[in-house]
Amino acid sequence: MNGNTIFKSRMAKREALEGLLFAAPLLLGLLVFTLYPVLDSLYISFTKYNIFTPPKFIGLQNYRNLVNDSLFWQSLRITTIYSVISVPLQLVAGFAVALLMNQKVRGITIFRTIYYLPSVVSGVAVSLLWVWIFNPDYGLANVMLRAAHLPTQKWLTDPHTALGSFIFMSLWGIGGGMIIYLAGLQGVPQHLYESASMDGANIYQKFRHVTLPMMTPIIFYNLVMGIIGSFQVFTQAFVMTSGGPANSTLFYVLYLFRQAFNYFHMGYASAMAWVLFAIILVLTLLVLKSSAAWVYYEGERKR
Amino acid sequence: MTHRKRIRIELTIKFVIYLILCAGSIIFLLPFLWMVSTSLKPASQVMVYPPKWIPHPIMWINYVKGWTTLPFTLYLENTCIITFSVIAGTLFTASLAAYSFSRLRWPGRDIVFVITLATLMLPSQVTMIPVFLMFRDVGWLDTFKPLTVGAWLGGGAVNIFLIRQFMMTIPVELEEAARLDGCSTFGIYWRIVMPQLKTCLAVVAIFTFLATWNDFMGPLIYLTTPDKYTLALGLQFFQGHYGVTMHYLMAVSLIVMAPCLLLFFLAQKLFVTGIALVGIKG
Question: pTM of whole model > 0.95?
Answer without folding.
Answer: no
